[in-house]
Amino acid sequence: MRRLALFAAAGAAGLSCITSSIQASPAAEDTQERAQVQTAPARAQLRAAETIEQVVSTPAAQRRLRANVRGVSQRDVARAAAQLDARNPARMAAIPDAEFGNVTRVNPQTLTALRALPPRRRGGQEIEQITPSRAAANVLRVRTRTSTIQADQGGGPPASFQAPETPSLDVNAFGEDLHAALSNSTNGYMMRIRQGGQTIYTLQWDWAQRPGDGARGWNPDRRMHIASVSKFITAVGLVHLLIAEGIDPDSEIVDYLPAYWAIGSNVEDISFTDLLRHESGFSTGVSDTGFVFMRQQVAAGVAGQGARDYENMNYGLMRILIATIGGYVDPNVVFGPTSINDSVWNAVSLAAYVDYMETHVFGPAGVSNPTLGKQAGTARAYTINGGGSWNTGNLSDWAGGAAWHMSVDEVLDVASLFRRGNAGITRSQASNALARNFGVDGRVNTGAGPIYHKNGIFRNIGACPGRSEEQAVLLFLPEDMELALFVNSPVGSSCTFLRTLVTTLYTDNLVDP
């Protein structure tokens, strides 16, 4: 039975019920990652010469678009169709993020080996040396953090009755350790830490595009495909929409799916929470989020909900749900026979998703025109030593679970918007969403407090370390800090998991008060 559950007092309550049913995160090892190989996007029942753009441009489709689609123009839909048609068909692999639970530490021998790599002469041409670092000549280090210790004003409880102070991060020591581990074991990287929304530390190193590809160095505005960190971005949009519409995240999604889709067993029980936490029951074994593929998976059904299985499809479905819940298109609209319907729905839902994200997430965060494909200045993926130059191309049919190309600063802008109670999501609602692992992979408990983490990896198929790879990490740290790190290669000859490396170095550099 299809059913909806609405908040009793939308707006005032917001996502107040988001705190319910918080479950303990099962332990898992980072080594349990499972590669998901992309399959070609399905174009069922379409003639080989017929593109999605051609389908949405037919007179019949245009009439139905005018009658049934709101909030985006026919030009927007045509542009989305062209993006879908232009998607890069090359085989790729996306590495799903490790499961919930504490991240295992990097082996001490691995850290020692990374730090002991012989130095080599490197340096992107656009890197500006702000403050010379004793670690390396072409590292940018900005340290603007001031002491938070204030004079005792009196009137508080005796010291013996006060809660013990918690450890804090030695930011400089952490940055130096991170650079020592990455500078000679990667092609290049960009890292920035903010506290209270303000930059307190920056590191940038080497080439985003090597001399043969454009000679562009890393800087905080350099965009890269952020892979699965796109899921966090999508989660911000969906949570914003659920709050705005007064929809309980534990409500089922089925009434918001296109009505012409066949609904397989147990799909009626899938909730927004299930998608956000990767507990929907979908288990495809691949990373594909093409429209027809997702329709077929919904028709095939699931065994049941609750067990975590990291699937790009969970977030691919969100671009369709944002289109219907956001009022862009009614779920009952039919644009023609199934082949036509698939193409038009595909283009409409992508256009609606992009519009909602630009209007309610990127715009309020001050992010201008992020793209689903690479531009001239976008970072490329390489091997550790700078070989295997790879442009991951247009990934529009993976929108929702991947595909956004953004800079470190832009990712941090969205993270700050979300965490600090701006643009329709309160601080409390954001905190509760993180606690329920909405848009993040889980939590690492440290002496300073929990770290909520989101990881993204996209790579060419190949053996370590000879594969080209791009990696992005977003961390919500204690002390009101966020960290974003991009690396456009594997890390070291053993392809060390980047998020584990960063969290290990974070805990190693906590100091007692």
Q: Regarding CATH, which class of the domain at 41-145 and 173-226 and 339-513? A: Alpha Beta
Sheet having the most strands: 9 strands, antiparallel
Low-confidence residue ranges = 1-49, 97-102, 121-159
Shape field: globular
Distance between the termini: 56 Å
Beta strand %: 5-15%
Average pLDDT across residues? 82
Please give the number of β-strands.
13
Look up the CATH topology of the domain at 41-145 and 173-226 and 339-513. Answer: Beta-lactamase
Secondary structure elements and pairings:
Blueprint: E1 36-37, H1 52-56, H2 59-68, H3 74-85, E2 93-95, H4 108-115, E3 168-169, H5 171-182, E4 188-195, E5 198-209, E6 216-217, E7 223-225, H6 229-245, H7 272-276, H8 291-300, H9 312-325, H10 338-365, E8 405-407, H11 408-419, H12 427-435, E9 442-446, E10 449-459, E11 469-477, E12 481-487, H13 498-508, E13 510-511
Antiparallel strand pairs: 1-2, 2-10, 3-13, 4-5, 4-12, 5-6, 7-8, 9-10, 10-11, 11-12
Short description:
By secondary structure, this protein is of the alpha+beta class. The protein has a domain at 41-145 and 173-226 and 339-513: Beta-lactamase (3-Layer(aba) Sandwich).
